[in-house]
Amino acid sequence: RDGDAIADEAGENPSVECNVDRGSSIVPLPSYWATSEGFAISPDPNRINEVQQLMSETWRVCYTRDRMMVGGGTRVPVGCRVANVLRIENHRGYEKFFQHKERVAGRRRGCVEPFATTTDGKMNLLDGDGGEKYLFHGTTPEAAHNIARNLFRIDMAGSSRGCMFGPGIYLAENASKSDEYAKEGEGAYMGLAAMLICRAATGRVLRVESSGDFSGSVTSGEYDSVCGDRLAAAGTFREMVFFHEEAVYPEFIVIYARVYDS
Q1: In this structure, are residues 208 and 160 in contact, taking their beta carbons and an 8 Å threshold?
Q2: Are 218 and 206 spatial neighbours (Cβ–Cβ below 8 Å)?
Q3: What does pTM read for this prediction?
Q4: Distances (CA, A) of 1 to 21, 33, 48, 92
Q5: What stretches of 141-221 show up as alpha helix (H) in DSSP?
Q6: CA of 125: how far to CAs of 17, 117, 128, 134, 189, in Å?
Q7: Which of 95, 144, 174, 175 is the most exposed, fewest CB within 10 Å of its CB?
Q8: How many Cα atoms sit within 13 Å of 16 on the Cβ side?
Q9: What is the spatial distance between Cα 229 and Cα 128, in angstroms, rounded to a whole number?
Q10: 3-state secondary structure of 92
Q11: DSSP-derived secondary structure letter, 131
């Protein structure tokens, strides 16, 4: 079946990328990818320790109403235990993301203040063009596979959590924030939740502290993303919101168990 390949190669993660000719354009693929076209999900066991460290270092114990509204619970995990990491090689999606990132970089080069996140410099060596970051998105194991294949869809925005800052793709710099929206799976995934680690082109960031629909500020071209800064407003978390589907590429599926205080 076309697009259902599961690759079994999982290497380390050098920052050098290899160029693949896509007709009229050259798209530099990450050098650790095992395929040159189509769609594949590859086990990446050599990355488990790195992802564990990334999630642990960005995990902050803080209760918000979203944990109750989405998950129905008040207990906040003190951390997580990564069970598996899968690498997503969706060439159609990555090409769209790369082209969008290049457009953002060309539009903003030299005129955008740096925007720091807690994930900066903790995984791979991103080139920084277009404000490229790694950010988290909580989901279910089953939904993670669907997003890997079909990518994010703006028309599905708010289907599980609402749209505090407008109908877009919501990511977080803290793994514990995205964990609020992650749900445990069924069957073999019982007791295990899923999180996506995504590449995102933040570009020029509009920082806001109150709720509202800020999508127009991005779709107009004035900004490239929105930071809903509830950390500054209420001491909780910051969320990054994107209103172009091609601004986000889900690159890794993390299967993990929550860890609670005894």
Answers
A1: no
A2: yes
A3: 0.88
A4: 24, 20, 29, 17
A5: 141-150, 175-179, 215-219
A6: 10, 14, 9, 10, 31
A7: 95
A8: 1
A9: 22
A10: helix
A11: G
